Amino acid sequence: PQQPRHSDYHEELVQLQYKIVVLGDGAVGKTSICMRFTEDHFAQRYKQTVGLDFFIKNLVLPGDIHIALQIWDIGGQSVGSKMIRNYIFGAHAILLVYDITAYESFQNLDEWLHLVTQTFPAEQMPLLALIGNKKDLQHIRSVRLENHYTLVEKHQMSSHFMSAKAGDAVHSCFFKIAADLSNVVLTHQDVDGTSKVIEAQIVNHPQNDPSQPQVVIKETNSRCLIQ
After folding, report:
1. Helix or strand run (H / E) with residue 54
2. What is the predicted pLDDT for the residue at 42?
3. What angle do CA 196, 184, 181 make, to 5 degrees?
4. Range of 125's domain?
């Protein structure tokens, strides 16, 4: 049989794969964040995620490090599900998302965090990131910044604010998390190259049937632009 070329073999060796789990209440924008990052679009109509959806994103970090991110978008109603620990088990990073205009979504992160701490031993805790979504609605913010940063410090999380609707800071967040997992140091120029603001478009999608949970796998590619 034909042997793989050395370049192909080398590329296969350096590809890293990470499981990223996105948690938080319904309607905080988890799916919108995933779709903005993987597909560069925003759906105006809200569609509840039933169970979970999968997204796959391939990207390249400085040093020609190839990364495959498997993103698990967990439905907000799954917090009481018997399957929730199976969903989050084995995660390399967990993104805890709240809506900056909905204080209850921030309060309920305690319950999501409890699930995480009950699933992982302290020495195997995944990277945690706190994400305040809908930063385009700063004028009606209901979660104070000091509350956000207090939670970040308490649980040693990375801190992010973004707008899935505008595309603001979504890409840079995921690139930073991928770099942290890969022990790759990004310069400000690297991060700036991934920050994209994209005009929102109206996209209609069929509704999920609640009686038939769906798993959707979507794969896209991206490259970190280094000047």
Report:
1. strand 52-61
2. 83
3. 85
4. 6-221
* CATH number of the domain within which 58 lies: 3.40.50.300
Between CA 66 and CA 8 the distance in angstroms is 12
Provide the number of structural domains found in the chain: 1
Q: Which residue intervals of the chain are DSSP H helices?
A: 6-14, 30-39, 84-88, 103-107, 109-119, 145-155, 170-182, 188-194
Cα 131 from chain centre = 9
In a domain, 14, yes or no: yes
Best CA proximity match to 222, nearest among 149, 157, 170: 170
Positions of the chain with pLDDT under 70: 1-14, 45, 50, 193-227
For residue 1, tell me if it sits in a domain: no
Q: Is residue 33 part of a domain?
A: yes
37-55 confidence digits (pLDDT tens): 999 978 876 777 767 899 9
Query: Tens of pLDDT along 79-104?
Result: 888 889 999 999 999 999 999 999 99
- The letter for the amino acid at 83 is M
> With contact defined as beta carbons under 8 Å apart, do 8 and 82 qualify?
no
